[in-house]
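Deliverable D4.2, example record:
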Amino acid sequence: MTVRLRPHHLLCLLTYVGKGYSPAFTANYDAIAMRIEQGEELLIVSGPDDICAPRLGEGEAHCLEDDITLRDQLAARDVGLLLARPIGSGQALTLDDVLLARMRKAFASGATRSACKACQWNSLCTSVAASGYRDTRVNGCG
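Output generated by the structure prediction step:
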């Protein structure tokens, strides 16, 4: 199988520590984190992805808002610059330990954080990065 991720969720998974919008959201994200740790390939998608799934049934799902689409664009640009290749819909990515460490180093330095500025989880992610990514759910890949 393949984990479908929107670009800004490439950044979110770096600091995911089991907190989320609801118990269903967190349970789903935990299952996705486990799949990523087992080496499942990532497929970049435009719009809602596997992480968004539990929120899509809610009234006006924030996954569809323009500011979330902007986060995706900023994250795709930043991660693309880091990896020296385009990150966009249809791109496949394998997150191994080397790439995870490289992405976390860039995230901690702020090099890939332009998508995070208006996010409600920004302070949590900053503290997780400052802790050396302690207690994150994705720690090794493949």
